[in-house]
Predict the structure.
Amino acid sequence: MRSRDGRELRSFSFEEEAPGQEVRAVERRVLLETLASRLPSNSISYLSRLRGLKKQGDGGTLLELDDGSKILAEIVIGCDGIRSPIAKWMGFSETKYVGHCAFRGLGHYPEGQPFKSKVNYIYGRGQRVGFVPVSPTNVYWFICFNSPSPGPRITDPSILKKEALNLIKGWPSELTDIIQNTPDDIIIKTPLVDRWLWPGFSPPASKGNVVVIGDAWHPMTPNLGQGACCALEDSVVLAGKLAGALSSGNEQMVERALREFGEERWGRVFPLTVRANFVGSLLQWKNPVVCGLRDNVMIPKLVRLGPFLEHTNFECELMESVVSS
Ligand SMILES: Cc1cc2nc3c(=O)[nH]c(=O)nc-3n(C[C@H](O)[C@H](O)[C@H](O)COP(=O)(O)OP(=O)(O)OC[C@H]3O[C@@H](n4cnc5c(N)ncnc54)[C@H](O)[C@@H]3O)c2cc1C
């Protein structure tokens, strides 16, 4: 961890400060291809954009796709991200912008990237940057910056790159190097949003045989690095619940399994959503006095990493039946 002038604030290894913890940086493409490779061929239908869905009673739920085709589904698992039409149909509110945006990209070094295998954070005022090697040739990076509004949607990738480089003028030069080595079309800008699942106000995760998981259900800011992790946990827990219910062949058991999934997972994902939001507000501080305290007292002396990372410990009790099927 460094300040924007390059001064080291803290450096640690997990073995020393948080035994049992680790960071795994995985490219989204690699993760998705790996998961997809475990499915029977033709079980994924790509470019099938969902337009909306209609409850059909006993026969299932009717999905209407953008190309006009329709699918009658026995179970619908909505894992369609923060703008999920399924969550909308179930009555979830729009996500809320939290006041900061992120640029992300993958620096590409065809001859091999020059960085040590460690996570780097650099803190400024109202802005922070991170980078971590994800493969022998690729380095993932992000810039998180305050912005009163999400701003206009920019589609020209060269403008995105220019904006990202402008934000880190005067910061350690390796950042400029990584961004310069990022192909234009790999840079994205994302307004950061979340949705708090207040009990009594937010709908349950399932309605009949339709359930939402991942960002479609619990969009959270990335400040704890847990959004995708929670989406993966969701899928393991849901698979466990469904395995038993499906083998019973009873429709009501399926609906019950989906309800139980929502009840069990709420206690995990709601507190993480709130905590990620608070951590983001603290890390995006702009006030120079507060930033001085953060850099000189909090980060070097107060933060205890073991307890801070406790939330990443999640035991997936994967049932044998799920593994074998
Ligand atoms: C800056 C940033 C950094 C992050 N860093 C981390 C991190 O370090 N660790 C971590 O765990 N998480 C991180 N996250 C969060 C993570 O990216 C998300 O939580 C994760 O991608 C959620 O996965 P998902 O499958 O639920 O949704 P998504 O990844 O959004 O996937 C949704 C899918 O649904 C498809 N879809 C959308 N609409 C439709 C439609 N109408 N019809 C059909 N398909 C549709 C989309 O094409 C997409 O394939 C970060 C997020 C951001 C913004």
